[in-house]
Amino acid sequence: MIAFLHQLPHLEAYGNPQYFLYLIVAVLPIFIGLFFKKRFPVYEALVSLAFIILMLTGKNLYQILSLLAYVVWQIFLIFSYKTYRKKYNNKWVFYLWVFLAVFPLAWTKITPLMTIDKHQSLFGFLGISYLTFRAVGTIMEMRDGVLKEFSLWQFLRFLLFMPTFSSGPIDRFNRFDEDYKNIPDKDELLDMLEESVRYLMLGFLYKFILAYIFGTLLMVPLKEEALEMGGVFNIATLGVMYTYGFDLFFDFAGYSMFALAISNLMGIKNPVNFNQPFKSRDLKEFWNRWHMSLSFWFRDFVFMRLVKVLVKHKVFKNRNVTSSVAYIINMLIMGFWHGLTWYYIAYGLFHGVGLVINDAWVRKKNKINRERKKQGLSPLPDNKWTQGLGIFITFNVVMLSFLLFSGFLDQLWFPQPPVK
Predict the structure, then answer these.
(1) Predicted structure pTM score
(2) Do 338 and 352 contact (CB within 8 A), yes or no?
(3) Residues 6, 10, 291, 338: which is the catalytic one?
(4) What is the spatial distance between Cα 238 and Cα 33, in angstroms, rounded to a whole number?
(5) pLDDT average per 10 residues of sequence, the chain (420 residues)
(6) Residue 283 near residue 354, CB atoms below 8 Å
(7) List of residues 6+ apart from 359 with CB closer than 8 A
(8) Active site includes 291?
């Protein structure tokens, strides 16, 4: 068995035409079955398992063994808490189980910092972050009472859903399970097929053409020039800022479109991740358009719960202070989730402070408009010019944050001596 796994080819998820050929051939029987209101759960499981294994194969089987250990760990946590929740609801048990569910991901992030050779942790495998979101979300929904009865098979089907395994979008158990149980009618399936074709074509344009132009043809020489120029900031770094931002968007949006396309072919309408984010007029709107499944997950499971705890315990008298602190903590956690480096953490802090400033401006504008109304004056202008200005400012603020996120400033500000 070990020898067989070693001989398997490694297929990068949505990485090349060969992967798409194999994948579409594999999911085609699933889509045809849906036309006859039939699902083939065993076949679906085998397809998902096969492609997950092919994603994780390589020089060694470390990632496959890590995934197995991780799945066993999460099964234990989910079903032990499910049994406990039927009779009890102690908040400290809930906090402990959430901590234990997050622990493998946290350990994966910390381990490279604790070892000289940056040794990979026990649970290090592609997709651990997104599986953790699903597992933690399941525990939280059990705590809330919106999720009560489900089988091991249902949980594994949700946790290991292949199209979104490596990088999302992040789904919720009830929404996913409802989609799985209710097979769309033929007209809707045809619409989903048409949508899949559109997603695949746009995905190829985004990921393999536009991301290549911005990320390779333009950004690479700009980085070299910026490092040669040195200093805190230079004109080439400004070019890196914009090219990296567009590369990040087109690469990730392209991947997300591929995931949505294959999900449709398997009868599941996963949540959309991007909705024209660079048209956002302020930072709050941006996070309602950018990596939406992630930002909505943090909103529902971190921000809202944190606000509730702070209000319940009357930590701050002012509700605006409460929301501001919650914004900063929420975005800092998101920064730590990306990685334990100063630039990821600074990125989270940047957006946390940005959201606080955004809310403060909205309150100030509303106050000014109320005062102007009392004086019989018209409100502050809200037209295509002011909206365009908001889009321009937000776009550039976001691009600056992406430069921070990229880690390029770490290379520019703290250059490493060449290895001899």
Answers:
(1) 0.93
(2) no
(3) 338
(4) 52
(5) 62 87 94 95 94 82 90 97 96 97 92 64 83 97 95 96 93 96 94 96 97 97 96 96 98 96 96 96 97 96 95 92 97 94 97 97 94 90 94 98 97 80
(6) yes
(7) 284, 320, 323, 324, 327
(8) no
